[in-house]
Design a protein that fits this description.
The chain has ten helices and ten strands. By secondary structure, it is an alpha+beta fold. It has two domains: about 160 residues, Ribosomal Protein S5, domain 2, CATH 3.30.230.10; about 130 residues, GHMP kinase, C-terminal domain (Alpha-Beta Plaits, 2-Layer Sandwich). The strands form two sheets. Strands 1, 2, 3, 4, 5 and 6 form a six-stranded mixed sheet that branches. It has a four-stranded antiparallel sheet with strand order 8-9-7-10. The longest helix has 20 residues. The two termini are about 30 Å apart.
């Protein structure tokens, strides 16, 4: 008996929405297959990226599977096959995709007995294994799809917001690696009150822009982050120049995807997105850095196949 699931790449933080906003992307996914076996416990099988841990409690997918087996007091075990479609340390929610794919695959194997809140908790546990923090801004859209807002509480509340169908995002991933732990460690421990006020205003404006279907306002609010983006830009060679290239090409707004080093820009059509992508990629190419480019609608389907 076996089950499988795929989980998409995601863009998280979304400018001023640190650890709060996120959306799913079309295209790249992580895939997890789980097979029931008689021997208790969890085992990682198949070819695995050599940089990923094989220890069950340290690998995101197997750690999630083990936690879910224990939650139902299972007397059997599972073999986990993880196929990575997302680059590591890319800012595209690589660890979240693995955690969510494992969560949904195990949910199916175990008879779909868990609630959405419980599934979110399992996926967040996987994220904590990966980077030390159980934040949900990547796992929520990877799990449920769409554009999501993470409101704190117990349980954590996830609010899904519709995005105009013609809005497009281009994500450019330079072949640089920026571990999430390093990117989080660089953040300030405190900020000035006026800076926090400005960020709250921009985060609120970003959500207002979604309801008003105002791409220009969304872009302005996106670029209003005065806390996280300015710090993380310094960790990504060529980031400032690449962002300027996106705006010069007519993007409505541009920011860092998750912890970076990927950046994303917003447009109103596929054709415009492809133009912006070429201009961004050209910046890194001049410095001998290869890139991957993804163009997607904002808020694709999640692992649970929700629209």
């Amino acid at each position: 008996m076996f089950a499988a699931a795929s989980a998409p790449a995601t863009v998280a933080n979304v400018g001023p929405g640190f650890d709060v906003f996120g959306f799913a992307l079309e295209g790249p996914c992580d895939h997890v297959q789980v097979r029931r076996v008689s021997t208790p416990g969890v085992r990682l099988v198949g070819a695995v990226d050599p940089t990923l841990p094989r220890v069950v409690t340290k690998n995101v997918a197997t750690a999630v599977a083990l936690r879910m087996l224990r939650a139902v007091n299972a007397r059997f075990g599972v073999e986990v096959t993880l196929t990575k479609g997302l680059p590591l340390g890319s800012g595209l929610g690589s660890s979240s995709a693995s955690a969510v794919a494992a969560t949904v695959a195990m949910h199916r194997l175990l008879g779909e007995r868990f609630t959405d809140d419980e599934l979110l908790d399992f996926a967040r546990f996987g994220e904590k294994v990966a980077c030390g923090a159980a934040h949900a801004d990547n796992v929520a859209p990877a799990l449920f799809g769409g554009f999501t807002l993470v409101r704190g509480g117990s349980p954590v509340e996830i609010i899904r917001i519709d995005v105009p169908k013609n809005w497009r995002v281009v994500v450019v991933h330079p072949h640089l690696e920026l571990p999430t732990k390093k990117a989080r460690a660089a953040l300030p421990l405190s900020v000035a009150l006026r800076t926090m006020t400005a960020n709250v205003a921009n985060a609120a404006s970003l959500i207002a822009a979604l309801y008003k279907k105002d791409l220009a306002l969304f872009g302005r609010a996106l670029m209003g982050d005065a806390i996280v983006t300015p710090v993380r830009k310094r960790l990504i060679p060529g980031c400032d120049v690449a962002m300027r290239a996106a705006i010069q090409a007519g993007a409505a707004g541009v920011s860092i995807s998750g912890a970076g080093p990927s950046i994303f820009a917003l447009t109103d059509s596929d054709a415009h997105a492809k133009l912006v992508a070429r201009r961004i990629a050209a910046v890194w190419r001049r410095h001998g850095i290869k890139t991957d480019v993804f163009v997607s609608r904002i808020g694709a389907r999640g692992a649970l196949q929700r629209r």
